[in-house]
């Protein structure tokens, strides 16, 4: 058994542990690892109360797998009565009056929320350095970033504080931190997981998902959070597969496309070598490697950095200092109230993206930027459709480098954007993808990304799980192996 | 793509972001670089390609025109920086 969740669930059912024990242990580890700055809010009282309820449910027998399992939510998911900051000064004191669907479903399954994980402000960033609450750190090397934007979620799982965490992925924000921290990160198909109560960044790209040690853990969590939600008009009304049941499916005969574009110039040699070794392992397990082309891959970053900021500039117009969120002091007029509340509430990267998006949507530039980016988006999506005529999955490095040093790219937005080169296309096309630990380079974890056709999460999870049945990279933890 | 300070000021006004004069040159240069990146899109052959606004070609979902939320005015107003008598307060707009 390789699943942290399955092990804990078994120990709860065998009465070797209570949910209260697990919650207390997790809270103790959160304190022990306070230097990681992985969380923005920890609510001990709420966690212990939820654990007590889980113990009552467990005593009744026949409980869902996640009952009594501790987690942290990325601080982008609204939690009723628990502040939800989105990593921003704008929402520093925001206490939502309702739960996000993801939060509601996990609570309904009996999972125990410890608190809220650190993140880049409004999920904009690839290093967690854009958090108003300071960067989370990489448990493998405290001088390096954990990735972003779900950096706190990844750090909390990698450090062993919790067996899983929620995250969101708009351009790689689950997969890249999972790769940087040596854990597994699943971004489901757009529309598979409800966005209700998830603070919006770019609504046609945003996707809730999970970070955990292994694919089996991800399968348990996806089973709990996937499915139609009438409150999110983009959530898809189609059956949810048996993600756990299919994990034993063999890799024999599975065709895995290897796109040369994902091994381009920006990919560090150590990362490329590690990922190629992982591909060889997949081949050994019976998969067939097929060379494929994704001809528009180099346009994914330009298209993404027009579309995502355009949607962000529209979404973030709701922060006006009137109904909730930060308000400047002594506004002289309504205009002054808007302008200063927003200037004070948003950090540098968020402002930059709002400005880029506003420009791309403004009169005279709309066709040249936004509309053109949307046309290129279709070309990128068509590349995947073509490729999936020949193959079942596509593989490559999740990120071109291992976790970089804090401050290394903080002053160069374009260098930071390049960290997303292999992940953003998946969001533009709305596909599911997973990052799994594939080995190490320079002592830091390397992630292998697998991409599947829309709604083929089961295939993705089974392939990842089969790889993890035959490798132990996902079991390595900071400060010592397995 | 070069962006001048006046353009940044205009865009910031559209986005309702107060920007100090001292911030303009750096922002102009950063925006210019991002737009230069976006300029790569010009290399794509997009003739006859339909814009893609959303991952799934799905019809808009209709719902019944019915109230689904109860009266939560107090809970929602409690989030606001300033309210009075069930209203959000803003600086005077009409003299």
Salient structural properties:
heterodimer; A: 482 residues; alpha/beta; Amidase signature (AS) enzymes; 11-stranded mixed β-sheet; 15 helices; B: 95 residues; mainly alpha; two-stranded antiparallel ribbon; 3 helices; 2 strands; 32% helix; flat
Distance between the termini of chain B: 43 Å
Oligomer: heterodimer
Rough outline of chain B: flat
The neighbouring-strand order within the major sheet of chain A is: 1-3-2-4-6-5-10-11-9-7-8
Helix content of chain B: 25-40%
Major β-sheet profile of chain A: 11 strands, mixed
CATH structural class of the largest domain in chain A: Alpha Beta
Greatest interface: A-B, 70 and 49 residues
Number of domains of chain A: 2
- Rounded to an integer, what's the Rg of chain B over CA atoms? 22 Å
Give the helices and strands, then pairings.
The complex is a heterodimer of chains A (482) and B (95).
Chain A: H1 4-13, H2 19-32, E1 39-42, H3 44-59, E2 70-74, H4 101-108, E3 112-117, H5 151-158, E4 164-168, H6 175-181, E5 184-187, E6 208-212, H7 215-225, E7 255-259, H8 269-284, E8 288-292, H9 300-315, H10 334-345, H11 348-361, H12 367-390, E9 393-397, H13 413-417, H14 424-429, E10 433-441, E11 444-451, H15 457-470
Chain B: H1 5-14, H2 24-38, H3 73-77, E1 83-84, E2 87-88
Helix pairs in contact in B: 1-2
Please summarize what this structure is.
The complex is a heterodimer of chains A (482) and B (95). Chain A is an alpha/beta fold and 482 residues long.
Can you walk me through this structure?
The complex is a heterodimer of chains A (482) and B (95). Chain A is of the alpha/beta class and 482 residues long. Chain A has 2 domains: 4-256 and 395-475, Amidase signature (AS) domain (Amidase signature (AS) enzymes, Alpha-Beta Complex), CATH 3.90.1300; 298-373, no CATH class. Chain A has helices at 4-13, 19-32, 44-59, 101-108, 151-158, 175-181, 215-225, 269-284, 300-315, 334-345, 348-361, 367-390, 413-417, 424-429, 457-470, and strands spanning 39-42, 70-74, 112-117, 164-168, 184-187, 208-212, 255-259, 288-292, 393-397, 433-441, 444-451. In chain A, strands 1-3-2-4-6-5-10-11-9-7-8 form an 11-stranded mixed beta sheet, sandwiched between helices. In chain A, α8 links the parallel β7 (255-259) and β8. The longest helix of chain A has 24 residues, at 367-390. Chain B has a domain at 5-42. Chain B contains 3 helices and 2 strands, in the order αααββ. Chain B has helices at 5-14, 24-38, 73-77, and strands spanning 83-84, 87-88. Chain B has a two-stranded antiparallel ribbon with strand order 1-2. In chain B, α1 (5-14) packs across α2. The two termini of chain B are 43 Å apart. The chains are: A alpha/beta (482), B mainly alpha (95). The interface between A and B is large, with 70 and 49 residues.
């Amino acid at each position: 058994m390789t699943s942290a969740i399955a092990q804990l669930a078994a120990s709860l059912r065998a009465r070797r542990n209570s949910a209260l024990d697990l919650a207390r242990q997790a809270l103790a580890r959160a304190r022990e690892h306070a230097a990681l700055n992985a969380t923005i809010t920890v609510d001990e009282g709420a966690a212990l109360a939820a654990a007590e309820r889980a113990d009552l449910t467990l005593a009744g027998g026949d409980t869902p797998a996640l009952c009594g399992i501790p987690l942290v939510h990325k601080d982008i998911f609204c939690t009723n009565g628990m502040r939800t900051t989105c990593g921003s000064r704008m929402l520093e004191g925001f206490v939502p009056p309702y739960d996000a669907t993801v939060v509601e479903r996990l609570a309904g399954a009996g999972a125990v929320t410890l608190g809220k994980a650190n993140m880049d402000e409004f999920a904009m960033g690839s290093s967690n350095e854009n958090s108003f609450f300071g960067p989370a750190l990489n448990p493998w090397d405290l001088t390096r970033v954990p990735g972003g934007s779900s950096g706190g979620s990844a750090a909390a799982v990698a450090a062993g504080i919790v067996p899983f965490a929620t995250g969101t992925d708009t351009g790689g924000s689950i997969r890249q931190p999972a790769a940087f921290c040596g854990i597994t990160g699943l971004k489901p198909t757009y529309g598979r997981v409800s966005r209700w109560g998830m603070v919006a960044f770019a609504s046609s790209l945003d996707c809730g998902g999970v970070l955990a040690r292994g694919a089996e853990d991800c399968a348990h969590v996806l089973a709990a959070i996937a499915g139609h939600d009438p409150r999110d008009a983009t959530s898809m009304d189609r059956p949810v597969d048996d993600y756990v049941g299919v994990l034993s499916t063999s890799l024999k005969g599975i065709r895995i496309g290897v796109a040369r574009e994902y091994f381009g110039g920006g990919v560090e040699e150590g990362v490329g070598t590690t990922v190629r070794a992982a591909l060889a392992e997949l081949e050994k397990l019976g998969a067939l490697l097929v060379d494929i082309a994704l001809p528009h891959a180099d346009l994914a970053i330009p298209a993404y950095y027009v579309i995502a900021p355009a949607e962000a500039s529209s979404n973030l117009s709701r922060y006006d200092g009137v109904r909730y969120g930060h308000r400047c002091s002594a506004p002289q007029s309504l205009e002054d109230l808007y302008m200063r509340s927003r200037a004070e509430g948003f950090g540098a990267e968020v402002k930059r993206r709002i400005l880029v998006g506003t420009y791309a949507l403004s009169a005279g530039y709309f066709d040249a930027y936004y509309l053109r980016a949307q046309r290129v988006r279709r070309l990128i999506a068509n590349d995947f459709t073509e490729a999936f005529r020949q193959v079942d999955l596509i593989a490559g490095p999740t990120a071109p480098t291992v976790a970089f040093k804090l401050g290394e790219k903080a002053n160069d937005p374009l260098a930071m954007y390049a960290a997303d080169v292999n992940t953003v296309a998946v969001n533009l096309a709305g596909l599911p993808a997973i990052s799994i630990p594939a080995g190490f380079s320079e002592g830091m974890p390397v992630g292998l990304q697998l991409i599947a056709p829309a709604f083929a999460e089961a295939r993705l999870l089974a392939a990842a799980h089969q790889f993890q049945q035959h490798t132990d990279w996902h079991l390595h933890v900071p400060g010592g192996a397995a | 793509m070069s962006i001048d300070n006046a353009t940044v000021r205009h865009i910031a006004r559209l986005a309702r972001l107060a920007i100090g004069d001292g911030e303009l040159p750096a922002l102009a240069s950063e925006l210019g670089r991002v737009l230069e990146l976006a300029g790569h899109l010009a290399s794509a052959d997009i003739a006859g390609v339909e814009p893609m606004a959303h991952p799934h070609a799905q019809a808009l979902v209709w719902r019944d025109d019915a109230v689904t939320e109860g009266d939560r005015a107090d809970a929602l107003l409690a989030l606001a920086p300033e309210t009075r008598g069930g209203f959000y307060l803003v600086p005077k707009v009409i003299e």
